Amino acid sequence: MAPFESMAKMLVFAGMILVLIGGLLLLAGKIPGIGKLPGDIFVQRGNFTFYFPVVTSIVLSILLTILLNLFFRR
Hints:
The protein has helices at 5-28, 54-72; strands at residues 41-45, 48-52. By secondary structure, it is an alpha+beta fold. It has a two-stranded antiparallel ribbon with strand order 1-2.
């Protein structure tokens, strides 16, 4: 195996993962309710806007934990 072959495979895999994540982020904006749950922090004053999706992050973390445990359980 050439010295750069394993690195090339790793970069191709990382690129596929980034494309998948990017596609999911594009689709996430079209799902109603995502990012606008009660408990998310949204502050708008003048020309300053601050948004921190606390509850959305917790819900997504729980869902991903359940999904990954189902798929990777041995």
